[in-house]
Each structure stands twice: as structure tokens, then as C-alpha cells.
Amino acid sequence: MINTEGMVAETATKIYTDLCARDVPHEAEAGRYPQALWDALTENGLPLAWVSEANGGFGADYDETFGAIWASAQAASPVPFAETLIANWMLDRAGLAPADGSASFALSGHTPSADIPFGMHADKIVLFDEAHHEISLFDNRLAVRSPEESLSPDGMTQFIFSGHLAEQSAKTDLSRRAIEALILTVRAVQMAAAMESALNMSIDYVTQREQFGRPLSKFQAIQQQLAVAASECAAATMAATQAASAIARHADDPEQAWHEAVVAKVQIGHSIEAVTVPFHQVHGAMGYTQEYDLHHYTRRLWAWRDALGNEHHWSKRLGETLAVTSPDHVWKGVTTGQWIAS
Amino acid sequence: MQRFNFPVVQPDPALEDLRGELQAFLKEEREAGNFRPEPECWMAAADPKFSRKMGKRGWIGLTWSSQYGGHDKSALERYIVTEETLRSGAPVAAHWIADRQHAPMLLAHGTEEQKLDILPRIAAGECYFAIGLSEPGAGSDLANVKTKAEKVPEGWKVNGQKIWSSGAHMCHYMVALLRTSPADGRNRHVGLSQIMIDLSLPGVTIKPIVDLSGDAHFNEVYFEDVIVPDDCLLGEEGGGWKQVTGELAMERSGPERFLSSYITLETALHQLNGKMGSDSHARLGKLIASLRTLKGMSWGIANLLDQGVSPETEAALVKDLGNRLENDLTQQVRAMLNDLPSEDWSPDMRRIMNIGVLRSPPNTLRGGTTEVMRGITARQLGLR
Ligand SMILES: Cc1cc2nc3c(=O)[nH]c(=O)nc-3n(C[C@H](O)[C@H](O)[C@H](O)COP(=O)(O)OP(=O)(O)OC[C@H]3O[C@@H](n4cnc5c(N)ncnc54)[C@H](O)[C@@H]3O)c2cc1C
User: B269, B340, B373, B381: best mutation site toward chain A, by most A Cβ within 10 Å?
Assistant: First the structure.
């Protein structure tokens, strides 16, 4: 589930409402990092939601934390909230203390360097080294950071791991698939939330803007475009929610949630074109401006779609995995969400 | 938080036992040559013998009480039966519509005698119903129905014509939307009623319409001074519009709106076993992701319906997304099959693919067109 009720989700929602109003994402892009927003999240311990109590966190419900991530994406959060949650979860699963400050993550396979979301802002980088079953924490401030071209306003940097000494390292029993499951699910929740915000903006816009003497919303061509977009948004939310539920159900063994997470990534990745085209179309030229808010969502959607492999990559991965199982197993997965691991 | 109401519901292990029984039965029937799997089986593959077998096993009439021949089971169990029969492409079209639509309608609006007489026959797989909504001048614009029922001493006298009535040539009854009193000015939704018509009555003429594949599944149905008894009026006189729209929500969200062509993929998976290239893997992955997502949405609605909630817009969304997926599935499988030289295709594969292509146009028409579904969604978004 993606539960927007409960303490964690409600605290996050309140912080985002109070400290991430419309101007904040704009200012962040202009280079004024919203430190107050980040401080409020930290003071309330939210980046430690997925850290076990034994390790100084509060082992919060997955469902509620997904609700907090939903709120952050709807506010076009310009701070690495979801990234820090993931990084701290990885550290915790290796028995390491959570990061001091903000953090982002990288998976080996992309080594020796990695494209790090929020790489200019994160204090720490957490690396999963698949070959050695190891999770390591690096100080990002000591690295030479070079911003890469990115679709997202949150940016992306290269981190060259070779030559850097990890602050801490530990073995983990997490598999690559387990980590992928969580990351893809978090991204799916962010994408579904951002899609819905952009849909709401589009509906408001066409109801207010008049052309030919009536609101745009009265034109059937506009209605049909937004109805299609709305159906894709509803599907995205379902896919993200199914993935989130699988993570919660398989908290001890997130690898079991891999198929549902990949399904969500594929479904939503393929939907993004189907929603961002009409969202921009119905906004006319206004939606193409820096001044207007729509791009806070659509640029992130385009970036998240590509992050960790695009929808074509994951469709192929999923198809390859299923093609070697029997058609009975495929059917079982489709109808019940119980996928036979392969 | 979210605009639409699609609860996520985990499968119930008890329901999965039922799934196993169905799978065993359907496999046995197919292997015995008692049916050849087909896409769109719920509309186009009718076999009364098969329907009676389903009835004997207790797989029709799951949801109503045993007093009326039913089995006191939930709508969710019915959903599993629906899914499994679609997956296997079984010939279920004869009883499908009566089981899905008209039995619940009779339970809500029928007389005690009608329930005792008709419902057990539906559950036995022996009594079939046709949907009488469309007319030559009333398709998407359904409120434009002209077929009339006039009050007479013996009951109602029906005159007019219905069209596209699926299965009417083999059905025992039609529930028709009829004008029983004139429209109130421009409000055409008043004065419409639902009437159950015994299709063996004098004055009823049924003419099959041949579709583009050469089959004849739907019909023109003419009524000439047909007299139906009073108790065949279902629900309230003049309440037809409201009843019909309620019924449509139920009709639009079931697995038949996105699994009608699954048999094409299933057959291809057997064919392509170990021979799929990377392009096909990508197509397969995309299809599976969409199927899984739609199952979640449709299952969410089934659970709401089971609790007595009838989400009309959500049903329209599922139908629109599902119909697009069904047609896309056939196209994707066509492309995937390129990995296999066509001389290696089994005759069944070729037959099923061809049927799938020929039967693709109705997906986005029957039960309300895509454009109409999007209109419903747009209204919910506050745009109309
Ligand atoms: C295989 C099959 C089985 C069927 N079975 C039954 C049955 O058993 N019983 C029954 O009653 N009916 C049945 N139908 C009829 C079906 O419900 C109608 O075909 C459907 O409602 C569309 O009506 P129409 O064919 O008259 O098309 P029209 O209404 O003439 O529409 C033609 C096109 O115009 C579009 N259009 C129409 N109005 C609008 C509008 N306001 N805005 C935008 N676009 C619009 C439509 O979406 C469509 O694309 C069946 C149809 C098929 C194909």
C-alpha cells in the first residue's frame, strides 16, 4: 500500500506543505537549496524511517513511508529525501549506522563510476558492490563532483569510486535483485505521484483558460486527451501500489518483490509518454515556460523513467525472466502476483 | 489522496483452490477435443453442451442462493471462474451474459415465480439471455431508443427493433430497454423501462447478421405487437435509464475486458518456448506488466462490487485501458511470432491468431465505445 495516513506520512505531508510551497522548487533550481526543508525532515527523523530501531532509526511501516514519498513527489521535492531513505536502508541491511546527513546511492555494475541522483547535494554516497556482497559508505564532500547532463532538476553527478577510501564497509546478505526491488518501487511511487500532480494541474488549467469564448475543458478533444491521461495515471498508481504492497509483504526478503517492482517500472515507464504529451499539449505555450510549475513534474518523470535503465531495458529483463518459466507460471503471476522466482 | 478508488487486494488462498479445479477440468475438456480454444470466447464461442457441463460442476450461478439453484458463493469466486475460462478460450458464450448480468437483475427486480423458474435454469447452463439495448438509431446515443412498449390490459405491447443482439438466435429471453412513456421535453432519460421478453413469443423475429469473418453471432430482433405479461417489467416503470447505467458498471470492469485475447499469448508462449529473441522478450515484458496492472485494477473493482459499491468511472477506465491492451496484445504477439519461421507455426497457432485479428474491432465498441468511456472519465474529472 501507499498509505498517506499515519504519523510518518502525515508528518512528511505537513513539512512539505509548510516548507515546500510553489516557489521552493523554483528557487532550488536557481541554486538556493532549501536547507530549512531538509532540516525539518531530519529533525523529525524522517530519513531514518527505514532504519531498524536497534540501529537508531524507527523501523517505520513501509506503507506509511511510501505515503511520505508520495507527498514528497507531489511537492516536487528538491531535496534527496527518497534517496536518503534508500541509502539508509541499504546501510541498515549491512548492519551499518545510518548516514550523517543526506545521502544518495549507487549500485555496482556501474562501477568504477556511477551516476548519482542529487550528487551535488548528498553528503554521503552508499555503494552496493554486488561482486563482494558489500555495502560501503563514502563521503561525497571529499569527492571531486562533476555534474552530468540530466533531464531532472535534481541533477546527477559522476562519482569515481576508485581511489576513494570508504568510511565504512560491511558484508550484506542483500542480493542485487532485493535492492533493485526497493529502488524501483520507490521510483514507481514517485512517478505515480508526480503524474497525478501534473494531471491535477492540467485539469485546473483547462477549466480556467478560455478560448473561443468557453473554457478549454468544454472541448471534446481536450476531454478525451485528459481522460486517456487519467486512465494511465490510475494504472500507474495501481502498479506502484502493488509494488509497494509486495515490498511490505516481503520486508524480510525484498527479492521476492522484484517482479512486482519491475512490472511497475515497465508499466509506468511506458505510460510516461502517454501522459506527458497531453499534459504539455493542453497547456499550450504556458506549460513550456520555466516560470510555470508543470516542468517540475514532467522533467522528473522523464529522468526517473531513464534512471537505472529505461522501460525498454526492464521490459526485456522481465520478458527474459518469464520466457524461461512455463506459461502456467506466467499466468499465475499475472492473476495473483505470486511470481515463481527464476 | 488519489482521484480514483482502486483498492489493492491480495489473492485469497481459498479462491486459488477453486482455480486449480477449474484448470484441471478445462485441460481435460480441451485434451478430449471437446473444444478448440478461441479468442473472444465469451462473445463468440457458444456451446450449450459445454454450458451444461459448467452448470453441473456448479460454475454458473455462483453468487446467488441455493434456493434459486445458485451456490451461495462470492463475486470473487465467480471472478476466478471467469478468468480461467477466458484463459483457456473455452466455449462459454451461451450462458455468459445471463450469468453475469441478467441473473443479478432478476434477483433485484424479478417476481418470486420468475426467480424460482428462471434462475435455476440459468445456473444449470440451460437458459440464455440477450442484451437489448442498441437500435439502428441508438448506439452510443442510447437514450435515443425508439422501440416502444404500450400498456394494454394483458400487459405490455412491444413494437420496434433491436440490433447487434449477441446470441439472440440461441437465447431464451432478452431484456430490452424500451420507451414506455414519452421523453419529458429534452430529458430523454425519463420514460425508459427494462422489460424481459420471452423470445419464443409470437411477433418476435430474429435475423442473424453475418460478421466480417463469416460468423453470425449477433442479430437483428424485430418486435411486432408482441404481448408480454405485466410482471416482465423489471424494476420501476421509467427507471430503465438508471438501472441500465448501474448494470453497465458491472459489465465493464470484469476480466473479459482485458483477457479476451490472452489465449493468443498463451498459445504463442508454448510455440516460442526457448526460441524467443530479445525484441520479443521486451514485448512480452511490456504485455505482462500491463496485464498484471489491469488485473489489479479490475480485481479492486470486483472487491468493491462485492461490498455493494458500484464505481462507474473506474469501470470505464478499466474497459478503455483493457480494450487497448487486448488489441495491442494481438499485435505484439504477431510481432513475437516472427522469431519462428511461419512453417513451424502449429495449425492452432495460425487459427487462433487469425481469429484474434478478425475479432479485434469489437473490443473497443461493444459495451460502450472507447470515446464514450473517455466521456465518462472526463465527466468525473470535472471537465464536462
Ligand atoms: C460484437 C458486438 C456485439 C454487440 N452486442 C450487443 C448486444 O448484445 N446488445 C446490444 O444492445 N448491443 C450490442 N452491441 C452494440 C454496441 O453496444 C454498439 O456498437 C456501441 O454501443 C456503439 O454504437 P454504434 O455501433 O451504433 O456506433 P455509433 O454510436 O454510431 O458510433 C460510431 C463512432 O462514433 C463515435 N461516437 C458516437 N457518439 C460520439 C460522441 N458523442 N462523441 C464522440 N464520439 C462519438 C463512437 O465512439 C464510434 O467510434 C454489440 C456490438 C458489437 C460490435
Answer: B381
Half-sphere exposure of A74 (CA within 13 A, CB side): 24
**Amino acid letter, residue B83:** E
- All three cell numbers of A293, joined, read 510549475
Strand order in the sheet with A113-117: A113-117, A156-160, A146-147
The residue in chain A having the minimum alpha-carbon distance to the alpha carbon of residue B274 is A324
Q: Which residues contact A296 (CB under 8 A, 6 or more apart)?
A: A25, A76, A153
Ligand 1 pocket test: which of B145, B164, B371 has the largest number of ligand atoms within 8 Å of its C-beta? B164
Pull the grid cell for residue A342. 527464476
* Cα–Cα distance, B268 to B260 (Å, whole number): 15
- Please state the φ and ψ torsions of residue A123, each to the nearest 5 degrees: -75, -35
| CA gap B254, B96 in Å, rounded | 12
Residue nearest to atom 7 of ligand 1 (CA): B165
- B259/B278 Cα distance (integer angstroms): 25
Distance CA A155, CA A80 (A): 11
What's the pLDDT tens digit per position in B221-256? 999 999 999 999 999 999 999 999 877 877 888 999
The DSSP-derived string for A174-206 is: --HHHHHHHHHHHHHHHHHHHHHHHHHHHHHHH
Fill in the DSSP letter of residue B100. Answer: I
The question of whether B247 is a catalytic residue gets the answer no
Please give the Cα distance from B269 to B336 (Å, whole number).
Answer: 10
Q: What average pLDDT does range A123-147 have in this prediction?
A: 91
**Element containing residue B118 per DSSP (H, E):** helix B112-123
Q: Where do the H-state alpha helices sit in chain A?
A: 7-19, 23-29, 35-43, 62-74, 81-93, 176-208, 220-249, 258-283, 294-306, 311-323, 327-336
Do A231 and B321 lie within an 8 Å CB cutoff? yes
Integer Cα distance of B105 and B368 in angstroms: 19
Contacts of A207 in chain B (CB under 8 A): 382-383
Amino acid occupying residue B84? E
The pTM of this model reads 0.95
DSSP string spanning B288-305?
Answer: HHHHHHHHHHHHHHHHHH
Neighbour tally for B298: CB within 10 Å: 28
Asked if A96 contacts A168 with a C-beta cutoff of 8 angstroms, the reply is yes
Q: Which residues contact B138 (CB under 8 A, 6 or more apart)?
A: B144, B145, B146
* Catalytic, out of B251, B256, B314, B326: B251
CB of B216 within 8 A of CB of B44? no
Nearest to A70 by CA among A153, A160, A194, A175: A194
Confidence grade of residue B14 (pLDDT, cut at 50, 70, 90): confident
Question: Which residues of chain B are within 8 Å of residue A232 when distances are taken between CB atoms?
Answer: 321
A248-292 per-position pLDDT tens digit? 999 999 999 999 999 999 999 999 999 999 999 999 999 999 999
Structure letter (DSSP) for residue B101: I
Q: Per residue in A144-188, pLDDT tens?
A: 888 888 899 998 888 888 888 999 999 999 999 999 999 999 999
| B134 in Cβ contact with B163 (< 8 Å) | yes
Interval B136-145 mean pLDDT: 95
ipTM over 0.90? The verdict is yes
- Report the C-alpha gap between B90 and B125 in whole angstroms: 14
Contact B288 A230 (CB under 8 A): no
Phi-psi sector, B130: left (phi>0), alpha (psi -120 to 50), beta: beta
- Helix, coil or strand: residue A321: helix
Q: Which of A227, A239, A333 sits opposite B293 (nearest CB)?
A: A239
Reported as half-sphere exposure (CB side, CA atoms, 13 A), residue A302 has a value of 14
